[in-house]
Amino acid sequence: MRSVFTDPAHRLYVDDAPLPKPLPDECVVRVRASGICGSDCTSWRKGSIGGHDVKAPLRLGHESAGEIVAVGSSVRNLKLGDRVCIEPGIACGSCRQCRSGWYNLCPQVKFISVAPCHGTLAEYVAHPASWLHKLSPETDFREGALIEPMSIALASVRRADLKLGHSVAIIGAGSIGLMIYLLAKASGATPITLVDSSQARLDFAVSALGVRPSEVVRADPQGTHTAEAARIIESMSGTRPNIVFECTGFPGPVHVAIEALELGGVLTEVGIGANVDDLPFSDMLHRQIDLRFVMRANSCFEDCVKLLENGIVNPRPLVTHNYTLEEAPTAFAAASHPQAGAVKVHIVS
User: Fold this and answer.
1) Cα–Cα distance measured from residue 274 to residue 246, given in angstroms and rounded to the nearest whole number
2) Within this chain, do residues 174 and 117 fall inside the same structural domain, yes or no?
3) Which one of 34, 99, 139, 160 has the minimum C-beta count within 10 Å?
């Protein structure tokens, strides 16, 4: 079967791989749609992510959906032909974190597409049935492939403890930031401001997702933290946000978020980036600013499926580019170069 790999030489290529056979607790999924995540691009271009180095050929991809074509002997909850989305973090189930309900923090987690665990950018993959989530027969595979990134957005909203009527700012209008916008809107947050330095991203949010022009602020990378925070507050008619979702991972926007927040506000850090060494802890203490981090998702997949299939949120417009498996090098180039204008790139079959 054909699969998409990277290797220690930073090559990105399509090659043959053996067809998988299911273990007793696994199913084989014919992968029909997969999204390309920024972490896939990082593993390819930098050869490492989160301290996990690519030391051998690694199959990429972890945002996937497909149909079951083989079922392990002990699997009872799924059958041939079922449509499923794939939860990529395979936790041990027995450590303290797993037993406490925080399986996203499992120290023994096997997260597919993070070295050395092969991912899902292949024609077929074997995966434990307990980490497969059933989709309705009417759900498009491309929608199913959006469940994984949506789970990160839902985990972020839950970590922030967002409530009806909360004012919210979202810094970073990539796919996760835009999904957070959809979920915040559905949760009754108001007002909401979406911030990005790319006018094209903001224009896309307005045209494709129905974001109001009054809800967007184009960030000035050369602006001071105080000035940029003031622009966010001005866009909210003088209201400071109760919650800021920081989705870029860059130090500058983190400082802007802290300055913009209301007293007792919550900074929810979603982006993965460089360490921030000069946080204003004294100011945060006196204003009682909470800083919360989001590490993957926890018990969010099934709820995301319900939100999607019941029409509560519609992330489908986020998919701007579609390619075949053999076109993977072109797909990864589009996903990693801003000038391509991609929000979410899918590989479909």
Assistant:
1) 13
2) no
3) 99
Q: Are residues 141 and 158 in the same domain?
A: no
Residues 29 and 136 in one domain: yes
Contacts of residue 91, defined as CB under 8 A and 6 or more positions apart, other chains included, come to 97, 98, 103, 104, 106, 108, 109
Domain CATH number, residue 35: 3.90.180.10
Helices of type H across the chain: 38-46, 96-99, 141-144, 147-159, 175-186, 199-209, 225-235, 251-260, 281-287, 301-309, 328-336
As for how many domains the chain has, the answer is 2
CB–CB of 57/63 below 8 Å? no
Spatial distance between the Cα atoms of 25 and 320, rounded to a whole number of angstroms: 36
Residues 178 and 38: their CA atoms lie apart, in Å, by 15
- Residue 286 domain boundaries: 152-293
Is 140 found in the same domain as 159?
no
Residue 199 CA to residue 324 CA, distance in Å, equals 29
Q: How is residue 210 written in tokens?
A: 């129905």
Q: Which residue type, as a one-letter code, is found at position 280? A: P
Residue 218 pairs in a beta bridge with: 196
Strands of the 58-59 sheet, one edge to the other: 12-16, 2-6, 58-59
| Rg of the chain (C-alpha set) | 20
46-67 per-position pLDDT tens digit: 999 989 999 999 999 999 999 9
